Amino acid sequence: MMMTMPQAKGNETKGERRARRTTGALMELIESLSASHDVNEVARTVLAIGMSLAHADAGTVCLVSRDRRSLEIVADVGYGDPDVLRPHRRTSIDADAPVATAVRTGQPFFFESLAELSQRFPHLKEQAERRGRQADAILPLAVRDQLLGAITFGFVSPERFDDDMRATLLALARHCALATERALLVEAAQAREKRTRALIDVSTALARASAEGADEKGVSEVLAERMRSTLGWRCSVQVRDQTQLSLELPPDSLSGRRRTLSIREGDRHLGTLHVDLGPGEWIGQEEELLIEQIAERTALALAVIERTRAMRAAQEEAIRASLAPITTALDLLDARGKKNDAPERVILRRQVRHLTRMVDDLLDISRIVRGKIDVDPVPGELRSVLLRAVELAMPLLHERRHGLNVHAPAGLRVLVD
After folding, report:
1. Which of 19, 165, 206, 335 is surrounded by the fewest CB atoms within 10 Å?
2. d(CA 122, CA 115)
3. Could you give the CA distance from residue 331 to residue 336 in angstroms, rounded to a whole number?
């Protein structure tokens, strides 16, 4: 049957209007996406324009998680009740569901009715009926065979997806995929820069702490504070056989977010570093490398503490050894009994005793810090402890002509070593 000229012109005008509308929407999309460098912003932009273009009632953008094991909804429109999407916010990429299947295979789905969806995924029929939608378009987001996620559009009534509409939605998905890839690259570059700044910050803080004489607990506290402020990570350090220092980490509810790493200097094990990236995070290759680098910096700081402490102990032992011949020389001078140098010998002996006590105190502190002194408290009577202490101090009390009165009732017991 031949068409009259007005009918042909009318049909052509309708097609042209649709083409102009589609071209205008895609141009608006390209312009908006060119200024979007954030994944969430890209998703919201695509949904806003795509919903208008497809006359859809609802839509979502899902992206593959960093561990490539799940799909996460990053933007949604048209779901008034938040409970509708809550079970689907994070789903397995291996699920037998339309979105996960589209992402795995790279093939789009156009379900023009609930019957078509139920035929392909019969186990989802009741769920689809409850959500109140009759048609769906599910479009994978892929760039150069790299699957990034999917964009979905839902309709409350059956929808016919003709060739033009399918081509339009696929073009929209391609633009969304390119913009998403660009945004992910920008975010990855920003994350690398952030990690580099964090490594410099942590290295500087640890070096300063060890140079200023901090002990293991101080180094651990500095590390935990810098990790939290620069990366938002939580960490703790366990030094050899000592108890765990710094923050207590929560139970790991999501696999892949925590790492435990040995802190080593060569073949020597100095301690253990525990790192928790936080909920929803995942340790990739770059995070793994950063954790290893932080463990190396921590090992340097702990090694400096060990060497400084050992050198200080050696110096204290050397001072004590040098005091021994001075004490012996004074004993010899006293034995000769020369009266003309008695005042000088008294001064020397007093100063030698003072230095000896100072060195003994320093050595005791050093041994305590290094864990070289074991304390084994046992029950004992307070009276006997006081009498023994008085007995030890009595020569010094007599020398200085001091008096001492002790009142210690019997029967009081304490823990002593």
Report:
1. 335
2. 9
3. 9
Per-residue confidence band for 245, with pLDDT thresholds at 50, 70 and 90 = very low
Task: Look up tokens 């410099």; give the residue.
Answer: 200
pLDDT at 9 over 80: no
Please say whether the beta carbons of 154 and 57 come within 8 A. yes
The closest of 353, 375, 352, 376 to 364, measured between CA atoms, is 375
Which amino acid, one-letter code, is at 184?
Answer: L
Q: Which helix (H) or strand (E) holds 2?
A: none
Chain position carrying tokens 């009595």: 394
Give 396's strand partners: none
pLDDT tens by residue, 311-358: 877 777 777 677 777 777 777 777 776 656 667 667 777 777 777 777
Provide φ and ψ at 172, rounded to 5°.
Answer: -60, -40
* CA–CA distance, 150 with 103 (Å, rounded to integer): 6
Cα 393 from Cα 390, distance rounded (Å): 5
User: Which stretch, 11-15, 61-65, 239-243, 346-350, has highest mean pLDDT?
Assistant: 61-65
SS3 380: strand
- The strand pair at 244-246 and 234-238 is best described as antiparallel
Q: CA-CA distance, 124 to 298, in Å (whole number)?
A: 52
Burial class (CB in 10 A: 0-12, 13-18, 19+), 175: buried
Q: Residue 249: pLDDT above 50?
A: no
CA dist 104 and 385 (Å) reads 78
Cα gap 63→147, rounded to integer Å: 9
φ, ψ for residue 160 (rounded to 5)?
-100, 120
- Measure the CA–CA gap between 231 and 220, rounded to whole angstroms: 16
The DSSP line for 190-240 is HHHHHHHHHHHHHHHHHHHHHHTT--HHHHHHHHHHHHHHHH--EEEEE-T
DSSP-derived 3-state class of residue 276:
strand
Pick from 88, 81, 29, 85: which is nearest to 54 by CA?
A: 29
**pLDDT tens, position by position, 95-139:** 999 999 999 999 999 999 988 988 898 888 787 777 778 899 999
